[in-house]
């Protein structure tokens, strides 16, 4: 069973950058679409950015041009590079995955709307404040 451990969160000033990492174990990420999600206090969890095992990706409009998801299947790790951070980006960030063995493209969309998210990490706090 796939398991995740996120790291890289912290306190950063507006305009700053952070890079989140999500180390997977228990299975190879080759078979999965992977993604980052976030939940701010008092708000519902929302998708940030998702990446299929064939390179397709979906980003939330709020992070387009600022955040970049990537994956290293050799290291079994998913990354989220976050630039130009804003106070509104403050949240707990989670990584998740959906089985993508069918390679029909559906896993990416099912992961982004969370209906297909099967495995979740415990989250890492990101706080953007001066």
Inertia-based shape: globular
Give the averaged pLDDT, no decimals.
Answer: 95
N- and C-termini, Cα separation? 40 Å
The count of strands amounts to: 11
Instruction: Note the total helix count.
Output: 1
Order of helices and strands: EEEEEEEEEHEE
Evaluate the radius of gyration: 14 Å
Largest sheet: 7 strands, mixed
Percent strand: over 45%
Low-confidence stretches: none
Structural class of the secondary structure composition? mainly beta
- Helical content, roughly? under 10%
What tags apply to this protein structure?
single chain, 130 residues, mainly beta, seven-stranded mixed sheet, four-stranded antiparallel sheet, 11 strands, globular
Give a summary of the structure in a few sentences.
This protein is mainly beta and 130 residues long. Helices cover 5% and strands 47% of the residues.
Written overview of the protein:
This protein is mostly beta strands. The protein has one helix at residues 106-112, and strands at residues 3-7, 10-12, 18-25, 32-39, 46-51, 57-59, 67-72, 77-82, 91-99, 119-120, 124-128. Strands 2, 4, 5, 6, 9, 10 and 11 form a 7-stranded mixed sheet that branches. Strands 1-3-8-7 form a 4-stranded antiparallel sheet, with no helix packed on it. Strand 5 and strand 6 (57-59) form a beta hairpin. The N and C termini lie far apart (40 Å).
């Amino acid at each position: 069973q796939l398991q995740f451990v996120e790291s890289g969160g912290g306190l950063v000033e507006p305009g700053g950058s952070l890079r989140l990492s999500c180390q997977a174990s228990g299975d190879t990420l080759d078979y999965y679409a992977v993604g980052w999600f976030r939940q701010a206090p008092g708000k519902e969890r929302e998708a940030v950015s998702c990446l299929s095992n064939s390179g397709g990706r979906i980003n939330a409009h709020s992070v387009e041009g600022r955040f970049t998801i990537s994956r290293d299947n050799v290291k079994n790790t998913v990354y989220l590079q976050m630039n130009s951070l804003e106070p509104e980006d403050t949240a707990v960030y989670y990584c998740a995955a959906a089985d993508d063995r069918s390679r029909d493209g559906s896993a990416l969309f099912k992961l982004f709307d969370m209906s297909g998210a099967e495995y979740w990490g415990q989250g890492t706090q990101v706080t953007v404040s001066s």
